[in-house]
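To fix ideas, we quote verbatim one protein's residues and fold tokens.
>
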Amino acid sequence: RVVIMDEPTAALGVKESRRVLELILDVKKRGLPIVLISHNMPHVFEVADRIHIHRLGRRLAVIDPKQYTMSDAVAFMTGAKAPPEAALAA
């Protein structure tokens, strides 16, 4: 089983978004894998174990949110910065 969430906080307020993030962390603690699709970088960096970065419709890199900043992720997405060789998607 896998939980897939596509922009779950996009139309929510701050309080509701916080509840969704807490739910994601709770599901994660139970050992269920979660795919979170989101453009909200603070939310992604708060709950993700790894981040798959896409550019121009293709997966570009997979990064560890503990090793990269939100600015790095955005720079990879926009092409302003090339991801390191080790992070490139196969």
Q: What stands out?
A: Strands lie at 3-6, 34-37, 51-55, 58-63. The first helix runs from residue 14 to 29. The mean pLDDT is 93. Residues 1-49 form one domain.
